[in-house]
Amino acid sequence: QVQLVESGGGLGQAGVSLRLSCAASGRTIRSYAMGWFRQAPVKEREVVATLRRSGGTTYYGDSVKGRFTTSRDNAQNTVYLQMNSLKPEDPAIYYCAADPLDNYYSYRTITSYDYWGQGTQVTVSS
Question: What is the pLDDT of residue 14?
Answer without folding.
Answer: 79
